[in-house]
Specification:
The protein contains 9 helices and 4 strands; from the N terminus they run H-E-H-E-H-H-E-H-E-H-H-H-H. By secondary structure, the protein is of the alpha/beta class. The chain has a single domain, classed as P-loop containing nucleotide triphosphate hydrolases (Rossmann fold). Strands 2-3-1-4 form a 4-stranded parallel sheet, sandwiched between helices.
């Protein structure tokens, strides 16, 4: 009778499969702060990045380099993204990076629920750009830092003109919705806290 091999005697690929849990990484941050750059760095050694805005590059219009955003196509974009992300989860791909903003959108919630059911670990990642680090500190106390955050919203609006053309008002809304501490449970339950005082008064 052959004895069962010890764990260390197994092929390296099998040991890696046991030791390396499958992960879904959620990008957090505001537009034009380096999320996509950081997402690509996270999969430099393997993995997949899924960006919500990719729909408006590849599935709308005829130029894949042009951002053809349309409010009327948001539901289609959401379903397209959920389908392809869940397919990657079903295949067991890892790490999977979901490049979104605050982690509270419907696409994120549905994909996180599916990932948890499949045993994935959920982890949060943020940009590493110097300006995001500064904004991130301001977001810890939005009411006190209202004027500074409104100023950053104006700067980011300018930075986004060449890419996703996010409006100043949209930046303010995203800042208001920002939750400093976010957990998997909050995403799934959508237990959103009340937004802080509007930055529009600044």
């Amino acid at each position: 009778m052959h004895s069962r091999p010890h764990d260390d005697d197994r092929p390296l690929s099998l040991r890696d499969e046991v030791q390396m849990p499958r992960k879904l990484l959620l990008m957090r941050g505001l537009p034009s702060c380096g999320k996509s750059t950081r997402a690509k760095e996270l999969v430099a050694d393997g993995g997949l990045v899924f960006e919500f805005d990719e729909y408006f590059y590849t599935q709308v219009g005829t130029d894949s380099k042009r951002y053809d955003w349309s409010r009327s196509r948001l539901d289609d974009a959401r379903e397209w993204n959920v389908a392809r992300i869940c397919s990657a989860l079903d295949r067991g791909d890892s790490p999977i990076v979901l490049d979104d903003d605050n982690g509270l959108g419907q696409t994120t919630r549905r994909c996180v629920k599916h990932a948890v059911q499949l045993g994935y670990q959920i982890e949060f990642r943020e940009p590493t750009s110097p300006w995001w680090r500064e904004i991130r500190e301001l977001l810890r106390d939005k009411n006190t830092n209202r004027e500074a955050l409104a100023s950053w919203a104006n700067k980011l609006t300018g930075l986004s003109r060449g890419t996703h053309r996010v409006s100043y008002e949209s930046f303010l809304r995203r800042i208001e919705r920002w939750q400093d501490a976010l957990s998997t449970e909050v995403i799934i339950d959508r237990a959103l806290t009340a937004p802080s005082q509007s930055l529009r008064a600044s």
